[in-house]
Amino acid sequence: MRVLALTLLLSLPLGARPALARSTAILSYPLGDVWSTAVRFVRVDRGYTVREKDEESGYILFDMVEGSRTYKASLELIRATDDQGRDATRAAFSIPDLPRHFETMLLDKLSTKVKEERGSPAPPAPKKPPPEERPPKADGGTKKE
Questions:
Q1: What average pLDDT does this structure show over 75-88?
Q2: Structure pTM?
Q3: Does 28 fall in a domain?
Q4: Is a pLDDT exceeding 50 seen at residue 15?
Q5: What residues contact 7, with CB distance under 8 A and at least 6 apart?
């Protein structure tokens, strides 16, 4: 019985499900700054039909037209911190039925648009100096009473 179940499991086609492609990038701008730019980017610059959007949840569902076909796509925006400690936004495009390079192309173009509209990111906050270490007391830190 086990051999039959294993044979059936191994005979299932591995490519039957679409790959869940997802490309992400960290944009060194606060979420509030990126949201409005992202909506304009999808709707106006790219001319895609926005099916649903929710700023509080941070997503935009849209139809991407490529050639003569329409593909369901999404953009997710998540509050993050960049590698220099600034408020940032993680942007994630997902277009499951197209190769990943379509997602990365959209990420690059969105990143460029945010920088054009918002200027360079704010400088990172100055780092706090490390706390000063005190040498141990000569008596080993113990006190006799």
A1: 92
A2: 0.71
A3: yes
A4: no
A5: none
